[in-house]
Amino acid sequence: MISVEDLHLEFGGFELFKQISFIVNPRDRIGLVGRNGAGKSTLLKIFSGQLQPSSGRVVKPGDFRIGYLPQHMVTADGKTVMEEAVTAFDEIVGLEKRIEHLNHQLATREDYESEGYHKIIEEVTEANDRFQLLGGGNFHADIEQTLVGLGFKRSDFNRQTTEFSGGWRMRIELAKILLAKPNVFLLDEPTNHLDIESIQWLENFLKDYAGAVVLVSHDRAFLDNVTNRTVEISLGNVYDYKVSYSKYVELRKERREQQMAAYRNQQKMIQDTEEFIERFRYKATKAVQVQSRIKQLEKIDRIEIDEEDVRSLNIKFPPSPRSGNVVFEAKQMSKSYDDNLVLKDIDLTIERGNRVAFVGKNGEGKTTLARIIMQELEFNGHAKLGHNVKIGYFAQNQASLLDENATAFDIIDRIAVGDVRTKIRDILGAFMFSGEDVDKKVKVLSGGERSRLAMIRLLLEPVNFLVLDEPTNHLDMHSKDILKQALQDYDGTLLLVSHDREFLDGLVDVVYEFRDKKVKQHLGGIYEFLRRKKMDSLKELERKNNNQSTQQVVEKEEKKNDGPELSYEERKDVNRTISRLEKQLSEAEEKITSLETEIEEMDGRLANPDNEDMEQLLSTYSRKKEDLDKEMENWEKTTEELEEWNAKKTW
């Protein structure tokens, strides 16, 4: 599909790619990984044709279509959401107009036997075939399904794009790319502006898509759920792993250990050779051997080792001052922006030591409530902080409060105390400030760099209530790991607004879901919440099916005498199939109940892992979770099939 052949790219004497070669196959789901600056986004730009390599080439078929979503995109104005989405179907719309024009000619011309008339018929036939091939009859339904999947309401469709924030406008661009149905998707951090539900919808879309996917993401769960192949870029080379991200991490560790062993052996050999040359350089009797060793050194293909992240770096929040038992409390609290009601009659209590996640679609009020907690917004009703609560708050605007004339090092040096002062450069390096970046002034840093600097600063301040709004948006995976470990060790109260499931996993024990201006509490971790949400939707489906079944009974009675009666054998087959499906449904429900019981029992064992083989326990736990998901999918399919067969039973 896409063939990368001896690709070489050089910037000012620095080799970003060194004659790399690999192939993207038609159904590949590739995650591009590597250190910041390794060239992941650059490679996507080369694939899309926006950047040309120094040498080598990227070979694609002639009619090949690419859908490219960069991290930062310029969006157009002057159209509604629906009008903008329709531009993804320019060819279909053009064909529609062409077919209409040709049909008009056929209707008005009377030279039925002429060559021109027959040529128009051929053109209409070809245009109609192409129109059907592109799915022309269903594209409005595709648009609606995609926009809703990405979080838009149907009431948004006729709103101007200028009414939406930058994140929502990026969703419109993503929708256009998905709707265009290209041969390959090139997606650079596609989840940055999506909530959990939209990310899950996008995962399912990409998993089922007929073309290829090449993506860059720092969302582990998203990579694991979408990709089946991982291509690592390191020191200008590529390493191709035919596995998802988590498996790649294990294999990479093994490869690095082998690489390090080879590197040490080579370094030892080089040192021994250099010592031999130095010792016998001026001895005539050893001149031949010395020259041979010098040539040997010149011919060595030296092994390079990518700089390893400082995994031993251990950042801890300072001990938090003790607060009262109630950290924050809201009763009958509401918030509106002019005529737009965002939160209505909210009752919520956060107690000391709680570890809370705010989740829900964008625009449902998560950040609004976080800002109310910070006492930044006015509201109606009752809401107050508890006794001796000292908040550490991270939001995107925190970056703008940094001293613009200070360097990155100065910002951290001002608040660092104790042993941390000796690790400032290591800490900055862990959050992607390396080399000269440490001495850059804040005013020349990018928005992402400022956000990371504000996060480091927050890590070092003694507070007892941390409120973090999308803290992982500008962090790579290593930085996220360091932050997550610090938060796991934090002894205060924690509130996270985030869509990163892997980051939230193990950090929170209470999830507040924001939906329809209300807030609903769910006890348990993020994956437990997502599992329950799936079950809730199945229960809703079951209730809906029961209602439909009642309606079908009425309709059957009304239509009892309509249409031909089934023969005895046909009715026998219907009854037999219904019995089989009912048995399958009963078995699926029993398995779901059994698996839920086992998982609940294992939750207790994981919470108190005395004398447990944790690796074996976690492996079994993961397998049981997967089995539960499969059984629930089986339950849903069987229910739908049973409903269809019951509808055939009209006697």
Automatic annotation (TrEMBL):
The keyword Cell membrane does not apply. CDD domains: ABCF_EF-3. Residues 2-260, 328-541 form the ABC transporter domain. The keyword DNA damage does not apply. SMART domains: AAA (SM00382). Keywords: ATP-binding, Nucleotide-binding, Repeat. Residues 554-570 have a biased composition (Basic and acidic residues). InterPro entries: AAA+_ATPase (IPR003593), ABC_tran_Xtn (IPR032781), ABC_transporter-like_ATP-bd (IPR003439), ABC_transporter-like_CS (IPR017871), ABCF_ATPase (IPR051309), P-loop_NTPase (IPR027417). Residues 543-570 are annotated as: Disordered. Belongs to the ABC transporter superfamily. ABCF family. YbiT subfamily. This is Probable ATP-binding protein YbiT. It comes from Prolixibacter denitrificans.
